[in-house]
Amino acid sequence: MNTTPPRAFLPAGLRSPGRWAVLPAAVLAGAVLGGGYGALKTPEYAATSYVIVVPAEKSDPAAALGFAQAYGRVATDIAVTGDAQVWAGVTADTLRKNVLAATSPDAPMISITARSAKPAQAVSMADGVARALVLNSTHVAGSTGVKVVQFSRATKPVAPVSPSAPLSALVGGCAGGLLGGLVLLVRPKRPASRDGARHSRQATAPAPSAPVPAPAVAQHQPEAV
Predict the structure, then answer these.
(1) Could you tell me if 78 and 88 are in contact, meaning their C-beta atoms sit under 8 angstroms apart?
(2) Helix, strand, coil abundance in the chain, percent, nearest 5
(3) Closest CA to 154 of 66, 57, 20, 50
(4) Is residue 49 scored above 50 in pLDDT?
(5) DSSP state of 143
(6) Cα(52)–Cα(109) distance, rounded to whole angstroms?
(7) 69: closest CA among 53, 57, 82, 54?
(8) 110-131 pLDDT, tens digit each
(9) Which helix (H) or strand (E) holds 73?
(10) Beta-carbon neighbour count of residue 199 at 10 Å?
C-alpha cells in the first residue's frame, strides 16, 4: 500500500521551525536591550511653573491672549538674555535644551516645564524662566499694554518622568517582535527539496498519449473473368 509521509500534511511553517524561531528571538533581544537601556539611563525629573498674561488698565483684554502666545514662543530666548541661567545655576544651552513653554488657545496662560536629572535643579530652571518672563514684561508693559504675573510656582517632583526598566523592556520587546515579523515577511522562501520537486514534476507531467494505429491497407482482390 502506498502511504503519504506524515510531513506532507503539515503546514510549511511547521516543517521548517527554524524560520519561525526568528520571532521569539527578536522579542527577547528587544526586551533585553530595552530593559538595559531603562536600567542604565539616568532618570529625569520634570517641574512645571505657570504664569499668566493680564492686560493693563485701559487695555484690550483680548490682547492678553495674543501676547501669551508670543511670550510662549520666545520664553527660552527671554530667559537666556535675562538672569534665568544665573538663578537656575545652569548654562544657556542647558536652558534651551531642557525647558519647554506651552500655551493654551483658550486662556492667556503659559506653562514652563523644565527637565533635569536633579529634582531641585528642575524646579530652579522652571521658576527661573518664569521670573525672567515676569521681569521682561514689566520692562515693556508701557508699549505692550500687558504684563506677566506668576500664577503658580513649580513643586519639587517626587518621581522621575523617564520610563522605568520594566516599561523600557516592554517597549523593546514589542519593537523586537515587530521587526522580527517584518523579517519573516520579506525573507525569501526556501527552494523546494529534491524529493518534493520530483514528486511535483511527476504529478504535473502530462499522461502519455495512446499510440495512434496505422491506417489499414486495402487488399486488392483479383476480379473473376
Answers:
(1) no
(2) 55, 15, 35
(3) 50
(4) yes
(5) H
(6) 4
(7) 53
(8) 999 999 989 999 999 999 999 9
(9) helix 63-73
(10) 14
